[in-house]
Amino acid sequence: MRNKVYRALSDPTRRRILQLLRQRDMTAGELAEHFDLSKPTMSGHFNVLRDADLIQGSKVGRTIVYRLNVSVLEEALLALLDVFGIAREP
Question: What is the pLDDT of residue 90?
Fold first, then answer.
């Protein structure tokens, strides 16, 4: 699973999506307003992030609302710190 997370984080668009979702939950349309990308391209980014479990989508009517899965992001970042032997505070 962590490889999927790191793959998802390797793309600047996906990192920006995560930053936006850190502020608040957003619909796919609200997120798309921040990028000059086609809907299929945005959908591809959402799929990669969902596959890595970094975001979760809930269907509300005809709209999908995305939210950040902070725990998965934290676990991946902590594991990366451990790989490089970087101490973290208890």
Answer: 65
